[in-house]
Amino acid sequence: MAVYKQQELRKPPISQVGIVRWLRVNLFSSKVNVGLTFAALYMLYILIPPLLNWMIFDANFNFGEFSIFGFEFGEVMATNTNCGRSAACWPFIYEKFDMFVYGFYPRDLIWRVDIVFAMAASLFVIVRLARNYQHKNKVLLAMIIAFPVVSFYLIAGGSFGLEEVKTHQWGGLMLTLVIASVGIIISFPIGVLLALGRQSNLRVISFFSTIYIEFIRAVPLITILFMASFVLPLFFTGGVDFDKLLRALVAITLFQAAYFAEVVRGGLQAIPTGQYEAADAIGLNYVQKNALIILPQALKISIPNLVGSSISLFKDTTLVLIIGLMDMLAMVNMTANDINWLGRETEGFVFVTITMWIFLYSMSRYSKKLEVRFSTDHKN
Amino acid sequence: MTTENNKSNIIEISDLNKWYGEFQALKNINLNIKEGEIIVVCGPSGSGKSTLIRCVNFLEKFQEGEIIVNGTQLTDDAAKIRSIRSEVSMVFQHFNLFPHLSIIDNLTLAPIWVHNETKSEAREKALKLLDRVGIKDQAEKYPNQLSGGQQQRVAIARSLCTSPKIMLFDEPTSALDPEMISEVLDVMVELAKEGITMICVTHEMGFARKVAQRIIFMDEGQIIEENDPETFFHHPESDRLKLFLDQILTH
Amino acid sequence: MKKDNSLLSFINNNETRAIAFQVITLLIIAFVFYSGISNLMFNIEAREIHTGFAFLSNRAGFDINESMIAYTPEHSNLRVFYVGLINTLVIAVVGIIFATIIGLIIGIARLSNNWLISKLATGYIELFRNIPILIQILIWYNMALLTLPSPKGSFNFFDSIFINKRGVYVPEPVIETGFVWVLIAVVLGIVLAFLLKRHFKQKHDKTGVYTRTVGYSIGLIFGLPLVVFFLLGSPLHFDYPTLTGFNFQGGRTFSPEFLALAVALSVYTATYIAEAIRSGIEAVDKGQKEAAAALGLTQTQSLKLVVLPQALRVAIPPTINQYLNLTKNSSLATAIGYPELMSAFGGTVLNQVGQAVEILGMTMAVYLVISLFISLLLNIVNKKMSIKGR
């Protein structure tokens, strides 16, 4: 039975704070951890320095002479012979840069592709700025429809006074992005329809939807690409000379639609049945019910997984190399076959790997951000 | 350190100080608890009351001070800690039943694997305990099939399976729907009558009044006031306690 | 007076609509199929592409340098199918084993309280998950060809294992008569270990005395066959690879294609498995470990009885899914020429014979079967492990 007197705040014992504590707790907290820490440091020691040496410190960066305000810099650009083999020869990439990004696109028409790149970049900025804008959804929808259409005419040409560029000249990073965007944009509505079909009460529709989805998801993409490559032209009359790129796009779209369908189906199943019942109760028909009530909610829930699926698609676009399309990966061997630059595949691989990694890592960071935003959004 | 009173101290806490990094969670706690005593610890959230009782069974480590439980001092010795934990049981706010095991398996887990009892012995004891808390017929069900109040009663039965001398309750009814609180409190009142030492962190003042021999008020990591229930509620001395009682008793 | 709108109400009736909708769908699908197939038939005839499966008995006419079963260019195309199928299964099994091991290590490392280890594990995952698998396969393959020495200068381990540009050469075990008894001993060992475990479990139930059976199990499963092996006079010898001229003869070879594919698939799939394992362990509430500790269980007991059972329930389904993905990704062997199903049958044979529909159809059917099998496995696992009441 007592009242205690006020105790003063004290600082914790020295070994409890600061960098000493951090090291003790995080790196050396037990005998096992001490051993692991040293083992990890040793492993880093033998891996990282040689890699950095090859890529940066010993590498050749002689991109050629250039002058600013009349002052001359640099040396004559390195060639294959004086570039050295023990470290990276980045002038090779510098010279072949256009190949990696544009493929065989006519060099004097590259400005058209650059416009498309600029448009794409500005899309991100617009999305960011429009986040609080009232008519945000309309703006997004307009962009998603307008951008592909405009890009197509710019890149392919053949109308509006632009010179035509046939698809066999498309290549490099540009081709990769074209395939990925078309794949995502077109397969998404198909996937939504398939998901609705699978959930449908009409047995015929749900049967075919399910069969399609399960079949596509069971087989590797490469088999579908081959099917599209070899067999698709045969299904059409008149011996159509089916554009090679179009075959790949059909395959990838049909493939991705099944995966999007499963993601959307997950979103649909997360909607409480009360929503369906409420929509029915106010007298909405099937189309209205889905368009106004069910789908908006389902799609919103599915967005993180949709982004994840799109990331997978982006990775899968590299497979078109196998059916002869000249995407960025194919450029590695293509550029290294130049007589002037034989044997530079390593630099090519490193460049392509880093580029793809940057794209994919950024996409996955964005996806994680979305996940956080959506999970806090739904706190009831 | 035995006193001249008829019961000895079963828990002795001296100069206990605990920090989470730079933040001091417990400041110079000194507390002695006699065998068979029923103690209620209350206070605003963040006052350190949960941290305090979690130090008693070493779920939380402390940087300064001493805790002696039933004659054994709490140190980093794993074997000593385990032996103390057979005598000190804990009931958690969120029950922490093992969802992949049936109710009866939840109860027999520790007796079989820690105390090397035979399966039939353990089951018999478990069924008796389940009967005591009124859940005997749910023995083969799984935790997620029971209501919150039932789960907490099972948790109490589980902690009794090791025949503990001391029971720690960490806000046992805070996660329950109102209508289930009384069934759990009833079980705790029954337990109190049987002579187990109980330290209970709770907001249930009715329970405290009925059963506690001492009520301890904590705030900002230190003990502010402790008294028997009568004095505690009707003649609070410190201002902080008066404020606290004002806030909770007006509901 | 209300008009009798029985016709209108018939059309508006939901059931009628449903049936009509489905009939229309069926008709559309049938039409599409019909016109597609008839065009197909027409074009096939026009281009004089053969149909039917007769090509399967034709001579294959090309060499496959890696096969588990005997193969020569004189064998039939059907034989190529089998060779490819077996190679697919081999690479899948090898990939699955290593991906699981690496994934387990990385997943647990990710959760380590050692900051450096945990960050390195995260780095591994972020690095290899964001590089397309095809790029990884090509890089490993090209690296192997670029940096490994020629046969004359191979890396040499104990004069039995050699690593060079052409692959990894290891001694091949050659079974002699009597070895079958060793195999029988293994089976016997497993059965006995099982029975012993059951016996000790019953003893534990009855008397509360716990006996660790790990030692006995290892002794039975490994020790017993070993004893039999030596008793029978070691009916096994090794064929060592030896350098003759410019190449190695004898022993077993693992081609660079196989190694590159196996390493790439394992490293890549391990990132997903690591994440599955990490999410499994994190899914176990912190309170579970506290409750187990408060009851007096040791760390090992807590892991075995409380944490792992719950963690595995969460981690196993996505892991099995990843096994399926690995098997599908093995088809990318086409890019480097490892002769598995897609590459040998769907690639080389397809190029020679040209009957894409039949060949790709057969290939797809194989993947379908594998996929169905794994789905069934998943279903069984899910049923057995489901936590009741959730």
What's a concise summary of this model?
Chain A is an all-alpha fold and 380 residues long. Chain A has helices at residues 18-26, 31-57, 90-102, 110-129, 136-156, 172-199, 203-218, 221-230, 244-269, 273-281, 286-316, 328-336, 345-377, and strands at 2-3, 66-68, 71-73. A two-stranded antiparallel ribbon of chain A has the order 2-3.
Explain what the structure shows.
The complex is a heterotrimer of chains A (380), B (251) and C (390). With 380 residues, chain A is an all-alpha fold. In chain A, 66% of the residues lie in helices and 2% in strands. Chain A has a two-stranded antiparallel sheet. Chain B is α/β, with parallel strands linked by helices and 251 residues long. In chain B, strands 6-7-8-3-9-10 form a six-stranded mixed β-sheet, sandwiched between helices. In chain B, strands 2-1-4-5 form a four-stranded antiparallel β-sheet, covered by helices on one side. Chain B is built from nine helices and ten strands. Chain C folds into three domains: 17-46; 77-171 and 240-385, MetI-like fold, CATH 1.10.3720.10; 172-239, no CATH class. Chain C contains twelve helices and eight strands. In chain C, the strands form three sheets. A four-stranded antiparallel β-sheet of chain C has the order 1-2-3-8. In chain C, helix 3 (77-110) packs antiparallel against helix 10 (299-329), helix 4 (115-129) packs across helix 8 and helix 9 (286-294) packs antiparallel against helix 10 (299-329). Chains A and C meet through helix 2, helix 7, helix 8 and helix 13 of A and helix 2, helix 4, helix 5, helix 11 and helix 12 of C. Strand 1 of chain A pairs antiparallel with strand 10 of chain B.
Give me the secondary-structure topology.
The complex is a heterotrimer of chains A (380), B (251) and C (390).
Chain A: E1 2-3, H1 18-26, H2 31-57, E2 66-68, E3 71-73, H3 90-102, H4 110-129, H5 136-156, H6 172-199, H7 203-218, H8 221-230, H9 244-269, H10 273-281, H11 286-316, H12 328-336, H13 345-377
Antiparallel strand pairs in A: 2-3
Helix pairs in contact in A: 3-6, 3-12, 3-13, 4-5, 6-7, 6-9, 6-12, 7-9, 8-9, 9-11, 11-13, 12-13
Chain B: E1 9-20, E2 23-34, E3 38-42, H1 49-56, E4 64-69, E5 72-73, H2 78-87, E6 88-91, H3 103-113, H4 119-133, H5 148-160, E7 166-170, H6 178-193, E8 197-201, H7 205-211, E9 214-219, E10 222-227, H8 229-234, H9 239-249
Parallel strand pairs in B: 3-8, 3-9, 6-7, 7-8
Antiparallel strand pairs in B: 1-2, 1-4, 4-5, 9-10
Chain C: H1 6-12, H2 14-46, H3 77-110, H4 115-129, H5 133-147, E1 155-157, E2 161-164, E3 167-170, E4 172-175, H6 179-207, H7 214-231, E5 236-239, E6 242-244, E7 247-249, E8 252-254, H8 256-283, H9 286-294, H10 299-329, H11 341-353, H12 356-385
Antiparallel strand pairs in C: 1-2, 2-3, 3-8, 4-5, 6-7
Helix pairs in contact in C: 3-4, 3-8, 3-10, 3-11, 4-8, 5-8, 6-7, 8-10, 9-10, 10-12, 11-12
